[in-house]
Amino acid sequence: MCGIALLVSGIRIDLSALSIDSISSSSKIHLAFSLDDLKAALERRGPDSLGTKKLLLSLHSNNSISENSWVSSVNEEPHVLDDGSNISESFAELVFLGATLQLRGVAPLSQPLVDSSGNILVYNGEMFGGIEVGSDDNDTEILMQSLGNCCSCRSQEHKTTCDFNGQGKGSVADVLSVIKGPWAIIYWQVTPSGKFKNPVDPRFLLSSVSPTSPSLQDSDFEVENGTNGIRFWEELSCGIYSMSVDATKSDGIFLGDIKKHEWTNVMLKELIEWERVSIEPEPTQLDFSRSRTLNAEHDINSSSSFSVLAQNVLTALRESMMRRVSLHNIYQAHKETVPVAVLFSGGLDSMIIAALLDQCLDPNYEIDLLNVSFDGESAPDRISAEAGVKELRRVAPLRRWRLVHIDADLSKLTWETKRVLSLINPANTYMDLNIGIALWLAARGEGWMCEEHDNGIDEDKHVNYTSGARILLVGSGADEQCAGYGRHRTKYRHESWLGLHEEMKLDMQRIWKRNLGRDDRCIADSGKEARFPFLDEDVIRTLLDIPLWEVADLDQPSGKGDKKILREVAQMLGLHNAAILPKRAIQFGSRIARESNRKNFGSNRAANQASAGSVASHALVSDSNGTAVAADPCYYSHSFQKPEAVSGVSLVDDIHLV
Predict the structure, then answer these.
(1) Residue 344 CB burial class (10 angstroms; 0-12, 13-18, ≥19)
(2) pLDDT of 109
(3) Using one digit for the tens of pLDDT, what is the confidence trace for 500-524?
(4) Do 642 and 652 touch, CB atoms closer than 8 A?
(5) pTM given for the model
């Protein structure tokens, strides 16, 4: 994975199917993004290769004109996304861009891919199931073969109305619906006949990243995606979209018709609905559950004391981890000493991930545990990380664990803050910014470690170290599915079990928009691929099959009743200390929230009075002396994206539309 983009000019596109309220308000405002700007934004992610493919459509011919343009031999003039005046009215242009962080296959691969029929594919994702990929195969090539066998029907009634009915051909939606794992694709499908069947805006951009507008590059406060308070980017709701290009029904112009397709996989539809088997317990059921939990706490060394339900969750998580770190699928040109790292706070979720990674990764590999602190060794996350790595060394003494201390001073992160602002948009609150900065620093992996020698670790001697791992495991999804947030306890207190279920369902159905797009862009900016074991489809299905009172019991205190099922899993893994740790968000555990409050509001008390977490990050800007000053609102891009899973659905990772 790394990033993909599609730049369309000269086609009048009906965007009504996307249900984007803000598109009409920005239709008269244009940003001057060049093709080189877009390439630079993708190259920023550190891909192994970056390629482009240009497709020209002519109104005077039924055929398309195709032109290759690879980064290694680009000789075209930069294409400017202005008002479209540089494109002839008789032509439309589509430029496909593919940046590849190659983690599979035995031979190097460059995108876009073009098959013998002229179909074009750029793909950004990982297949953890659904389509068989051999240990030496590249998943992009396998996907291209599968899509090449599809019919070109756009009908929802494919099986009864398609021209290929009875010939064993499925639809594109059929193929995409079976993929397990995070993905984003842009696929140009040639029709059998060779014909190409808001207020007007001739520009259309789908992208994993937002290019920098030259008009904003000299700005003291640059969000890199817009000005004048107009929002250009939006997170695209999850699903499969197609655009049909036709010139037969217009007077000398290309028309683009966008359609959203239904998932054809029944399991995915069920996971999107996110309905639990059992929500409200009978008094006897709740009493039995609490009695069993109490007995397990008193007999933590006996495997028989753990519930079958917790065993099922552990099995699902272990299989999820195996799918995400199977090294025979990692591109062999990169045989890092440390192929996989963990975003590590020493808390419950990251400790479970680290322990499972140890069970699934070849013991010869080291494991980097990346910990970010804005308060040196005094930050809560640093303290729990130090304790956590000691517990991991006790549980898995043969593994070489490496705690990477990533220390930061918020007052010195000027350009870094601007960079992260461009990555998190359209998210724009201080909470989003604080989380984004912490994730971005963690993904870079630049810090220090205690000196290692044959007799152990010398904690008094520190050496600089940068993690070379290209895969970063993240615990997103655990709190949403297992009632780990404070608002879950509040909802339960006011509306009991049904209210808790509805709040958790809401969290899962919006996680793609509120969390995953932001987090993925911040991590991918350093050439790393984020993987989310808790958001595996089978893990989500397993948790939904468990009665809610077995997942969480919020009548119990923090550190016991919240994420109850995961605490039992931690006990089964031997993580007895981590199993009782209370929830602590990264912005608080790393102390970046405290430093941000002091910098932008003067104190934590003032920040709390202003509800700092929800204040837009462009509302206050530091001048050259570090003083907070008022600033006009800036707009952020509207980034269209599909992260790892929405209620368990394997969906597109990150696509943007303008």
Answers:
(1) buried
(2) 85
(3) 999 999 999 999 889 998 999 999 9
(4) yes
(5) 0.81
